[in-house]
Amino acid sequence: MSTDAKGFPLPSSIKVVPGTEEAQAAYPYYTQFVPEDDQKFWFYNSMHFPEPMHHFDMITAEAAYVAMGAFNTRVHVLPTAKGVDHRIINGRVYIGGVVVTDPDEIAERVGEFQQRAFYYYENWEDLYAQWKDKMKALIAEAQALPSPALPKYEPVETFKEGDAVPASHDLLKVYQQQIEGYHRMWHHHFEFLLLGYGAYMTFFEFCKKAFPEISDQAISRMVAGMEAEIFRPDEEVKRLARRAVELGVDHHFTDNMDIDQVLADLDAVGENGKDWLGELETSRDPWFNVSSGDGFYHYHRSWQDDLSLPFAALPGYIEKIKAGTNIERPTEQLIKEREQLVADYRDLLDTEEEKAAYDELITLAHRVFPYVEGHKFYCEHWYTNLFFNKIREFGALLAEHDFFGPDGREEDVFHLTQFELESAIIDLMLSWGVGAEPRGPRHWPALVAQRKAAIAEWDKHTTPPALGNVPDAIDDPAINMLWGITRENLDSWLDDGSENEKELKGFAACSGVVEGVARVVKSVSEIGRIQQGDILVCQVTNPTWSPIFQKIGAAVSDIGGSMSHMAIVAREYGLPAVVGTGKATTRIKDGQRIRVDGGKGTVTILDDEPALEDA
Q1: Partners of 112 in the beta sheet?
Q2: Contact at 8 Å (CB) between 102 and 86?
Q3: For the purposes of burial, counting CB atoms within 10 Å of the CB of 492, is it exposed (0-12), middle (13-18) or buried (19 or more)?
Q4: Predicted confidence (pLDDT) at residue 5 exceeds the cutoff of 60
Q5: I need a labelling partner for 31 at 20 to 30 A (CA). Which of 416, 432, 524, 575 fits?
Q6: Is residue 363 part of a domain?
Q7: Domain for residue 183, yes or no?
Q8: Does residue 160 sit in the same domain as residue 56?
Q9: What mean pLDDT is predicted for residues 228-239?
Q10: Residue 557, helix vs strand vs coil
Q11: Are residues 535 and 588 in the same domain?
Q12: Count of domains in the chain?
């Protein structure tokens, strides 16, 4: 695989890993690279899809990009950016934006955008309150869907009550309702998100013109100190730690604890233990309905389903509480700094007209920006976890009928695409109704085994951070701010390291200089390796990793811009961070000592060789 002088490898030069060709071909046809895709620039969306994608999990990309495109292009009518194309190869999702360049079309879209966006901005609080009601109703609707089941005989009551529609029909009905609900969730997701970013971007562009020397980080600090639902799960873990100390049951929580044993012990020790368990239940519903990842993989289980991540944080929080150490987010300090920055830059403006515009833009940004993080709790986490668990119920039903072989299990369902799963459901409906054996037990086991092997093989291979010739400019501010894709960064990604092999550059997400041991974490399952004081090096992180922020000294990511989720979370926790380095997880070895300068946006490798794990 070679990189030409102008840019990254062309999509056509990326070969399917030998032995995985059938698994690659099983992804939907419209997600496969075709020759004309060589004419476009693509980048690997490791922010949302850092691991190879199971076939069913690709619905998380499809539904998201269907909704994002519709809102960008047809609903909000963004003037210069339409939707995002997506492709998959070797389990890796690449995306490329669709830009508007024709001046007449841009002018037409500006007029449409203004009337639509202004309506939202003028009525933001009321519309957002309605949005929360819509999301909670959608969640309740999904929770109310019955679990799929097939009785030996239809109950007599079915026809006596005048229904006479057999249980097999409900399988198809419920599955289609789940798919429809998931797509609808993503439309709700994008109703406010891009307008939230848009308000900030307008303020950002004003500041760049008014204050040419201002840094991206300084502008982002002007909207720091937010309250959003996505931070609430971590707040609940802290609350549980405080209650454990207050109730005198804190000694039960230790590193590497057996969680089931701890729960049993607390139930047996008396009222204080039972009181703490009651507090746990209060926190779990709804605040533990968050994924250990970012909500795009079925196996990133929620805290509700797997208590490992929140319980791993309890000993550290308890220790700090008993030592009198403050464990709260530095929100008050951030707000104080924010207000001072806003006032200082306002004083630099020359005219009352400029100050009035500045006041209007920063006020709007403060009103709308909390949504940029808050929506994640309802959408990517609560609803998506519920959705995957409902799909698991179909997996359990198919496994019960031997669709995945004698050793099959419910998780095997995620190796089928959403369309294949519907066909398997219909196969089961047919066999139940006809009274004959289904074809699935002979059809699916080999394919599931083949795809399991492909996922494992793809995981061994790295993938280029981008494909195609680098464009002269990256003008989409969302791509700049969220993914950290700028022309300068792409040039840095193309650098083979010969200029300074010990330094990486990225976005200065949160200031501070920290030296420490690099802990390269490439998946959620590796979080447990993080030791006190380590520097987290990852493709991307998200707000639900917040409980581990008490352990780490700094964070570095491959992907992300100044307003990526990782950058926002780092600022909210006062954690020095550099995002969007492009290749930190491949250039930095696990155990090496590194220096992170979150103010300059640089990461320096201090040791040539990694330290021993037990050193």
Answers
A1: none
A2: no
A3: middle
A4: no
A5: 524
A6: no
A7: yes
A8: no
A9: 94
A10: strand
A11: yes
A12: 4
Residue 71 predicted with pLDDT over 80: yes
599 and 488, same structural domain? yes
Q: Provide the pLDDT for residue 496.
A: 58
Dig out the tokens for 12 from the structure.
């056509």
State the residue range of the domain holding 575: 480-605
Tokens 């811009």 identify what position?
A: 561
Please report the pLDDT score of residue 1 as a whole number.
Answer: 41
Question: Tokens 């020397």 identify what position?
Answer: 213
CB 546 within 8 A of CB 564: no
**C-alpha distances out from residue 386 to 178, 181, 303, 586, Å:** 10, 11, 12, 34
Say yes or no: 428 and 542 in one domain: no
Which residue pairs, CB below 8 angstroms and at least 24 apart, start in 14-20?
Answer: 14/89, 14/90, 14/463, 14/464, 14/467, 16/89, 16/90, 17/90, 17/454, 17/457, 17/458, 17/461, 19/453, 19/454, 19/457, 20/90, 20/453, 20/454, 20/457, 20/458
The domain boundary, picked from 347, 380, 399, lies at 347
Higher-pLDDT residue of 162 and 351 is: 351
Same domain for 226 and 339? yes
Mark out the alpha helices in 123-166 (DSSP H runs). 124-143, 157-160
Q: HSE of 56 in the Cβ direction (CA atoms, 13 Å)?
A: 24
* Residue 281: predicted pLDDT: 98
> How far, in Å, CA of 581 to CA of 588, rounded?
11
Question: In whole angstroms, what is the distance from residue 316 CA to residue 547 CA?
Answer: 9
Mean pLDDT value across residues 520-530: 83
DSSP-derived letter for residue 436 is S
- The pTM assigned to this predicted structure is 0.92
Q: What is the mean pLDDT of the chain?
A: 92
Residue type, position 348, single letter: L
407, containing H or E segment: none
Q: How far apart are the first and last CA of the chain?
A: 38
Quick: pLDDT tens for 328-371: 999 999 999 999 999 999 999 999 999 999 999 999 999 998 89
Residue 149: Cβ within 10 Å count: 12
3 falls in which pLDDT band (50, 70, 90)?
Answer: very low
Amino acid at position 611, single letter: A
- In angstroms, the CA 70 to CA 76 distance is 9
Predicted local distance difference test score (pLDDT) of residue 26: 98
Whether 341 and 235 share a structural domain = yes
